[in-house]
Amino acid sequence: MRWSLSRDSAYVQLTLTHTATGKKFTYKPSQPLTGSVFDYSWNGVLEGISAPNGAYTWQLTATPTDGVGAPATASGSFQVKRLTNPHDYNDNGSTDVLARNAAGELWRDDFFDAPVGGQSKVAKRTKIGTGWGIYKQVEAVGNVGGNANGDVIGIDASGVQWLYLGKGDGTFATRVKVGTGWQIYNKITGGSDLDGDGKADLVATDGAGYLWFYKGTGSYTKPFAPRLRVSSGWNAYNQITMVGNIANSPVTDLGAGDMVARDTAGVLWLFRGTGGAGFESRIRIGAGWGAFSQLVGGGDVTGDGRPDLIAYGSGGTYVYASTGSSTAPFTRQATNLYAGEGTKFNAVF
Known about the structure:
Layout: E1 2-4, E2 10-18, E3 24-27, E4 37-39, E5 45-46, E6 49-50, E7 54-64, E8 72-80, E9 96-101, E10 106-111, E11 122-129, E12 135-142, E13 151-156, E14 161-164, E15 176-179, E16 185-192, E17 201-206, E18 211-214, E19 228-231, E20 237-244, E21 258-263, E22 268-271, E23 283-286, E24 294-297, E25 309-313, E26 316-322, E27 330-333, E28 345-348
Antiparallel strand pairs: 1-4, 2-3, 2-7, 5-6, 7-8, 9-10, 9-28, 10-11, 12-13, 13-14, 14-15, 16-17, 17-18, 18-19, 20-21, 21-22, 22-23, 24-25, 25-26, 26-27
């Protein structure tokens, strides 16, 4: 943003305001760029985090330093809009990661929307609420309730499935009971559109090793259609994670669903989605993944248009950026997320 004034001897103040929330940012350049030209290049940060999407207004006030003449003002507006990120809960385009500790407290860490100095950095941590220890499993499932924000499900000890709709401000609406009988599943994962209909789906594995597909409906009262059995042999894996379209896909397409699964030997396997309920034959993509207690499909962490993977555990936390290759789909990137906290959280999603 650049303004040319009639003189350089002016005290200038620029204020940016997010219309929906009223959050403001004020900048006061100490001197002109050159002559009587003042400018400002916004880094897209507001109150310490990536600024939320939506309408903004700006106002510039230039006051003569010699006291001669009245202040001059100028104003205008603009829009901030980023690609949809299924792991974004406060509508600023950047990945948010949720974590539950032993006390049942839920915390949200908000990444910046692009790496800083080659590292994926967290901007801020916010406490979401308490009482989350009642759930045997919790999972980020993308937008399954029909709004524009990512949602969360929790499965309690009696097998009741509860849906928490994302409100778009980093918090969640009061839970809604959406299913029963989920105690039969030992692993669940969601957040990707497997069948290409534009709605996030969910898969689950039971004690017999069967993989079940739950098609997303887009309805918050009944977010998943009746289950469909996909395949067997999934008791060989101790972790399954939806990761979005990471292998050989256009970088702008975050929809088509792939999945990674870790076996008991710590080997990670890629299952590419077929565009239906199933997957292609598995591809071995690495070993040593047993060092991590949680694998999270984190949406687009690195800002390159591809969904990425986050690995958390006692050995550290890393962002595995998607490459688009089916044989070597990730490159590891450092992050300050959960630094020194590798055993603090019992669920990261």
